[in-house]
Amino acid sequence: MARTAVVTGAASGIGRAVAARLEHDGAQVLAVDLEPDPNGPGEPFAADLTTREGNREAVAAALERFGRLDTVIPNAGFQHVAPVAEFPEDTWDAMIALLLTSPFLLARAAWPALRDSGDGRYVAIASVHGQVASPFKSAYVSAKHGVLGLVKTLALEGAEDGIAATAVCPGYVRTPLVEAQLADQAKARGIPEERVLEEVILAPHAVKRLIEPEEVAATVAFLLGRDGRAFTGVPVTLDQGWTAR
Questions:
Q1: DSSP code of 170?
Q2: pLDDT digits (tens, 9 = 90+) for 172-216
């Protein structure tokens, strides 16, 4: 039987690549985004995931359309780069709501369905920033560290019910989110924008290239497959050697 999945932030970047890979592998995918792409992979569904209602509605829509729900993949997010003393409080609240509270709310709403699945999988798209920190990203780093804690808890609570929970932690991926922060990084560090990719973005990578979204999607597909069943409660890191230093 084909898997069913909710993928958030599915209109672009990693989320789009994950939705496309799962659909290619035969899954039914609810592609959730604030502004979903009607021409993208999966079945588009619009939701504001910074709200409780938006997260509940996404899970309810998957259950209504597919009749069951096997997989939840929280991925939606955005970035803001600024020193702590200048970091906007409203931006902090919005980032924590989308990057940390939404993964919790999705798990909470989907838990009965994941339990009934008999092979429930929860794969959060976290980041290497769930394991290490970088300056000027206080909200993002805090949220991603929190996601790793959430995944560990879900793994322990879901073990007896056959629910596995993992967090995929990539380094810098070629996405609009990364491209959009070049100007902010240049401003925060006082360097020209054309120097940011080499001197900031790729600096912590031992291998000096951006990861492709399809590589992250392939990792998710592995975790959802038969050979990925033993992975639970852990970060799965693909970081071009970042954390080897």
A1: E
A2: 998 988 888 888 888 888 999 889 888 888 999 999 999 999 999
118: left (phi over 0), alpha (psi -120 to 50) or beta: left
Active-site annotation holds for 140: yes
3-class DSSP assignment, residue 209:
coil
Other beta carbons within 10 angstroms of residue 53's beta carbon come to: 11
What distance in Å separates the CA atoms of residue 202 and residue 204, rounded to the nearest whole number?
6
Backbone angles phi, psi at 235, to 5 degrees: -85, 135
Residue recorded with tokens 């609009």: 176
245 burial level (CB within 10 Å; 0-12, 13-18, 19+): exposed
Contact 45, 58 (CB under 8 A): yes
Which of 140, 148, 201, 220 is an active site residue?
Answer: 140
What is the model's pTM?
Answer: 0.94
* C-alpha closest to that of 14 among 189, 157, 211: 211
Q: What are the distances in angstroms from CA 37 to CA 9, 10, 14, 186?
A: 10, 8, 14, 31
For 234, half-sphere exposure in the C-beta direction (CA atoms, 13 angstrom radius) is: 9
